[in-house]
Fold these 3 entries.
Entry 1:
Amino acid sequence: VASGVRVKRVERGGVEEIVTAGTIVVAAGAIESARLLLLSGDGFNPGGNVGKNLWFSLYVDVNGWFPKATSPEVMTGSPFIHRSLMVGGALRPEEQQALGVDRAGMLDLLWQHDNPIHRAERLAIEGGGTLWGRALKERIKTAFTEGRSMLCEGFGESIPHAGAAIDLDPATKDQHGLPVARLTYAHHPRDRKIAEHLAKTGLTVLKEMGAQNTFVRVGIGETLILQGGTTRFGNDAKDSVTSPEGLVHGMKNVYVTDGGVLPSSMTAPGTLTIVANALRVADGIIKKVRAKATP
């Protein structure tokens, strides 16, 4: 049983205090939550799995251009485009056989972000190299006045493997003198198959919609804010960190509620799944506390 959390009060000059609690919830993201557990000692890592099985959501970015000369409607207002395709990552049997995977990912269609600084920065580096001066001004003018750019984002499942994990850095410390998280990350060979399929499908979709100048901006990447796996849940400490209820194995009152508990990145952005799971764990905590309080 954990009795509390040791904290440093920044507003009090870094004075250390112990904040006691009957229930402790760790929710600092898959990287920092794993780091906190590793810093807390072996008792918080009974199976030695904290930090292993790291994943980031597999990401692909395909672009297409709709000139106002042929698609004038794109310049007036914001036509509803934000649509998802291939939800669930489903593949036809022949695609499964050709790719050697059971599922791939989903595509999300959306207009290029309207923030002018974001768009200008992106235009400066698209296509390799860096534009500046008159060439950049002309590209920006065209992009802002002669049409609109559509994105077809792909989100694929990234499965855990031995080449993706975090541990405590033996050399680098944070401002408090504690080891920072050290990331080891490489794509599984399966990732490239899925990324190539998503990019190829995205190009086909945009061309069928009438887009011009279609190209793959990101062939294989990661959505770093969608992270998990490092405290994944399971029934046994030998291959997981937390129970299905969110409890750290071997502990009676320490829970993890962020994306670290999810075993894989699934085939879609996991934000709402992370939220839903946190609410599920919170509901279990409330029921447990109320049951103890009932005479």
Note: The chain has a mean pLDDT of 91.
Entry 2:
Amino acid sequence: AAASRGARTHMRSGMDMGMQQAMDWLKAHSPRIIFLVIVCVAAYVTARLVSRALRKALEKSQIPDASIFVNLARVLIWVIAVTIVLKPVFGVNPMTLFTALGIGGFAVSLGLKDSIANTIGGFQLMFSHVLQPGDMVRISGITGEVQDVTWRQTVVRERDGNLMMIPNSVLNTTLLEKLDPHNEASVTIPFTAKPNVDTARLTNELLSKIDQSAHGLMDPQSPPIVRLTGFSPAGVTGNIIAYAKPHASQAQLIDAVTRSVSSSDLFTDLVASGDAKARDLLAAQSGANGSSR
């Protein structure tokens, strides 16, 4: 019993000693801890306020609203905060640290050359106004709307909803085509009508059928067009030009238009003239319907 009491007393005294040492350490370093907490809180609040103000300023100015500028401001604020606390809290001279970082920076840059190239490419794209969020672009066969330009990549959303992440360095070395939104939304379906067809009746009938079957897929501000293009041995050739609404599938629009007008008794041969875009999209739609069945 005496040994047990002695062990408990020794343990209690050890705990008391540890608590006393912890309290002494806190008392000795409390100014540094308080200073570190104040700087961190100030940096956090400042980063939030600056980010919010920067986003609002970008919305009002001609500079595109891209996250790369907001992220750069955040990094700069935290770098300043770290520089402020290095000497008072950790006893490290900032110039010594920066010198060491400069010496090792060359080796690090070799390993991060792709990331650095992407970041520089992002700044070039944004400051030159070559690419901005909201632009419709075609890049290496990818067509969609630019959503954002980040540190490493540009985010493009295709019409089917897929997000494509394209490295910024690639955009500076490949063909970039900016599309007019009106032209990008258009689909063309060629047809051949019977010889000696009443063109006014043909146009009215086609537009009526298209409006009934594909109204929900078309842009309400851009009505469809029936445009006659010439003659062939089979009859009068023409194109149906329709405009898909934002984020609507062009393949679905072509399918809806084709189904609605294919029963017309004024046609000789649908898709008699060759629009490659229409044929490819129709083939893809037919394949998808076949696999679902």
Note: Residues 269-275 have pLDDT under 50 and may be disordered.
Entry 3:
Amino acid sequence: GATTPLEGTYTQRVAKTGQTLISRDLAEDTEYFLGQKWVRLGFRSNILVPLISKGRTIGALSLRSRKVGAFGPAEQTILERLAHQIAPAVENARLYQQLQAHTKEMAVVDEVARIITSTLDIDQVCQEFTQEMRKLVDFERASISVVNQGTDTYTIQYVFGKPRPGHPIGSVMPLAGNMTGELVETGQTIVRPDIAEAQRYVDDQDHLDLGLRSCIALPPISKGRVIGSLILRSRQPGAYGARQRAILERLARQIAPAIENARLYKAASIEKERATTTLAQFKAVLSGVDTGI
């Protein structure tokens, strides 16, 4: 189930040409970056046969051997016949997986829609939303932060997973030097395949110390304004590709109004409570004055 970039691989060559590719000795093959990896694992030769369905290359059948020159014309003929037979089945299985993934994604979208209309409790919104995200995208840590309007700060609203040391939920942080700050400035998703290879932000080392290597940061936008950040992190380098980005951007757009409404409701509730307290104190003062008279 692992996803590997196609660029510079044997599979890319086969997909591009639609022709079988035989490497007699991988130790002498410097054209493809994975060749030396297989040599280190003890393999010396390989053969890749295109899987073609409806005139289109949909993948490759790959075999490797610890013996130099293990694959010749006879093996090629047999494998090309087998590839021709199994390609339609592979394509059908791929289409079925896509359908299943789409169905699962739509179920999550529907559940997020329910969350949006079910509560104005911002903590509950964040918690239930994170639970739904995990059904579609893997992560070890997630954080949802809300920008404090009129200041250059944001508040950590919710954290799933191990928190960053010294930065509990409710911490108020400066926008400068953080991904949240860049999200507010650009309104664009940030994908970082490996933090260890390019440290850019003040909190990068803290996350590396927690074993978190890759991340994706998304800007929830409500009424044309970035209202905070949604950041997912993984221990696996390169965990977030085009598929994960598309799913998360859709979910971030969907949840943003709910987070904003819940934030406004919470602020209004705090203001109401403050006004109630002030009124009670005022009445107490008046009562004291009346007693004195």
Note: The chain has seven helices and eleven strands.
